[in-house]
Amino acid sequence: MGISEALEYIQEVIQRACLRSGRKPDEIRLMGVSKFQDIHAVEEAWRAGLRLFGESRVQEAQEKLAGFNRTHPGTELHFIGSLQRNKAKAAVSLFDCIQSVDRDALIDELGALTNRRDTPLRILLELHTAEETKTGFPDGDSVCRAAEKALSYPHLRPGGLMTIAPYTKDGGLIRDSFRALVSLRNKLETRFPSCDWSCLSMGMSNDFEIAIEEGSTLIRIGTALFGER
Ligand SMILES: *Cc1c(COP(=O)(O)O)cnc(C)c1O
User: Which domain holds residue 189?
Assistant: First the structure.
């Protein structure tokens, strides 16, 4: 299956998951996770109509995609990996959104780096919900404190939450992870009502149907779109 067929197939699965759960397909953004894929694969996905891409390594994304949105208008690039301090500056200039903000020190770093920008940097706060991953704030309280910190920087704009569910066949465990994110989003909406918390980045190749049923607004798809890495 080529990339455009895979994209069509994923869109069908999204539609069916939406029908099952009483949602509208246009509430859900599809991100192509292009890490370890070459530029030709990204271009092919772009030609098939995809506009949102995610990368998890700053250097790889720089080499592959710097300037891509000039030649491919409408492209939006999000960072979804673990962001080291010494890569934050490059990340801030390359990415439209950092989805994987997972510690207070990183918020301070991004706040300082965006100090003199005229457009705000969008960020998502990552909640840790899976044993096997190491990234993400450990709990809701730490995310609430992080939200407060982020909102103290004029050019950081939190827009929601991100999580990586456990990698398992146990749908119940996956659902628990997504429900934790939804419940935290609801809490943030109450505590920080002037801010937009609507983005819920949850769902990958093996669990995006469940994520949609649970309220995801952005699914991050690598393998199902581009094939094995
Ligand atoms: C790699 C990656 C994905 C995509 O995973 P697939 O299982 O290939 O769809 C999504 N989100 C994050 C944070 C990733 O690192």
Answer: 3-226
User: How many domains in the chain?
Assistant: 1
Q: What is the CA(130)–ligand 1 centre distance, in A? A: 14
Identify which of 56, 83, 98 to mutate to test ligand 1's pocket (most ligand atoms within 8 A of the CB).
Answer: 56
Pocket test for ligand 1, best of 33, 56, 78, 218 (most atoms within 8 A of CB): 33
Distance in Å from the first CA to the final CA of the chain = 15
- In tens, the pLDDT along 28-70 reads 999 999 999 999 999 999 999 999 999 999 999 999 999 999 9
How does DSSP classify residue 139? S
CATH of the domain at 26: 3.20.20.10
CA atoms within a 13 Å half-sphere pointing along the CA-CB vector of 116: 2
DSSP-H helix ranges across the chain: 3-21, 39-47, 58-65, 68-71, 88-94, 104-113, 140-151, 171-191, 208-213, 223-226
Q: Which atom of ligand 1 sits closest to the CA of residue 223?
A: 8
Burial (Cβ within 10 Å: 0-12, 13-18, ≥19) of residue 205: middle
